[in-house]
Specification:
437 residues; alpha/beta; 6-stranded parallel beta sheet; 14 strands; binds nicotinamide-adenine-dinucleotide
Length: 437
């Protein structure tokens, strides 16, 4: 099938590439000409494991190409995906201007039947709005479908190629059939394509993300309480997670959830509720707890340094909002780093993939290690913000030799309390006893 993807970011590029992989002819459109130029040169502009192989293969097979021309995309695609940003607006709602502005252009430009598929995360009622905006100018038939995306950065290719479910919100038989045909190669193992109305599809995405954010936040509160009463959250986590009604995943406590989705989606659902005079009390609490959690280690660091962080050098490992991505949007690391700089600390940071994005944000206000060990040199403490695998088994002898003081503040509970005890490292983590040799 002929496909256009408008917006070639984390979602759009994975969508376009994976649809090309199953034999479709895909044109990806992006407004960012430098990004398009890079992709034309065969460079994947984001870090996403395994994407490069599919990207190269499909460009070579001439099933995947890139343009800044919306006209070219609309001319080409029978199905037009919108994978545009829906960032948080000032009042917490989702900013639909990208989606609606492009929709207006689509209305003016399409010349024959097209299916417009909204893959961006949008509030209930957006498909209706998109339909109305296109209809203002369209001189041909078209349908609007809601098809929220559930991929996870870091696992995006796998998630797209083997989705647990595909949600399609559509009230048009013609569009639904086209979507079924497009997606059938991805669900050969029997996972469902769930067809529903547009509003339910739109809400499914917000409900799923808000539920996951709530699960993480619940464990963060349990962790904070563990510290008060001397329980060990890791033991509680395993004790809870083995109950199949609860499940093992999303129970890891830490310094809060971040990223380009959970924070804005929870806020957008909360605000959408408010607009309907519905008070999502649980989401309000989730937002509040997560705001607190992002800097939960700060008072402990201040306390350790006897009330004054001025001039202290802190090494920071892990800057991306989670491992296996270079994305730093709403990363807890950024909140911690800003809070530490405010308190007069100096920072030496390292991340396997997110350094270029952090450099754009922090410039020369901090220093950058070429390796995880270089970031430790003469630092007064190490702070861990992201659970990249390479941080899991460090060379402790080297770590102790490089740090001015063997102190670790661990926002992701990477290490065993017993190991820290025997290594004689001062170790302060989340929801577990402090180790002070
Ligand atoms: N990132 C994720 O893990 C994820 C997962 C599921 C859903 N989503 C949702 O998908 C949507 C896109 O997210 P993303 O992370 O891919 O965003 P992104 O910022 O990585 O990508 C958006 C792209 O759209 C481009 N763009 C902006 N305006 C444009 C225009 N007028 N014409 C063409 N291109 C334009 C930008 O240059 C950018 O490349 C959001 O609604 C997000 O909530 C994201």
């Amino acid at each position: 099938m002929k496909i256009a993807v408008i917006g070639t970011g984390y979602v759009g590029l994975v969508t376009g590439t994976c649809l090309a992989e199953t034999g479709n002819d895909v044109v990806c459109v992006d407004i960012d000409s430098s990004k398009v130029e890079k992709m034309r040169q065969g460079i994947v502009p984001i870090y996403e494991p395994h994407l490069d192989v599919l990207f190269d293969r499909n460009i070579k097979a001439e099933r995947l190409r890139f343009t800044t021309s919306l006209d070219e995309g609309l001319e080409h695609g029978d199905i037009i995906f919108l994978a545009l940003p829906t960032p948080e607006d000032e009042d917490g709602s989702a900013d639909l201007s990208y989606v609606l502005n492009v929709s207006e252009e689509i209305g003016k430009k399409i010349k024959q039947y097209r299916v417009i598929v909204d893959k961006s995360t949008v509030p209930v009622g957006t498909a209706e709005k998109v339909h109305a905006v296109i209809a203002q100018n369209a001189s041909c038939d078209f349908d609007v479908v809601s098809n929220p995306e559930f991929l996870r950065e870091g696992f995006a290719v796998d998630d797209f190629m083997k989705p647990e479910r595909i949600v399609v919100g559509s009230s048009s038989d013609r569009a639904t059939e086209m979507m079924r045909k497009l997606y059938s190669p991805f669900v050969r193992s029997g996972n469902p394509i769930l067809i529903m109305d547009e509003k339910s599809a739109e809400l499914t995405k917000y409900a799923a993300n808000s539920f996951l954010a709530t699960k993480i936040t619940f464990m963060n509160e349990i962790a904070n309480y563990c510290e008060k009463v001397g329980a060990d959250v890791d033991k509680v986590r395993v004790g809870m997670g083995t109950d199949s009604r609860i499940g093992k995943r999303f129970l890891f406590p830490g310094i809060g959830y971040g990223g380009s989705c959970f924070p804005k989606d929870v806020k957008a659902l909360h605000k959408a509720g408010k607009d309907q005079q519905y008070d999502f009390k649980i989401l309000n609490a989730v937002i509040e707890v997560n705001d607190y959690q992002k800097t939960v280690l700060l008072p402990k660091m201040i306390n350790h340094f006897k009330g004054d962080l001025t001039g202290k050098t802190i090494a920071v490992w892990g800057l991306a909002f989670k491992p296996e991505t270079d994305d730093i949007r709403e990363a807890p690391s950024v909140y911690m780093m800003n809070a530490l700089l405010d308190k007069g600390a100096k920072l030496q940071v390292f991340d396997p993939e997110a350094m270029p994005n952090i450099k754009k944000r922090f410039n020369d206000t901090i220093s950058y290690g070429d390796s995880m060990y270089e970031a430790l040199e003469n630092a007064d403490a190490l702070l861990i913000c992201t659970e990249w695998s390479i941080f899991r088994t460090p060379d402790y002898a080297k770590l102790k030799q490089l740090l001015a003081e063997p102190v670790i503040f661990d926002g992701r509970n990477l290490y065993n309390i017993e190991d820290m005890d025997s290594e004689e490292i001062t170790y302060i983590s989340i929801g577990r006893k402090e180790v002070r040799p």
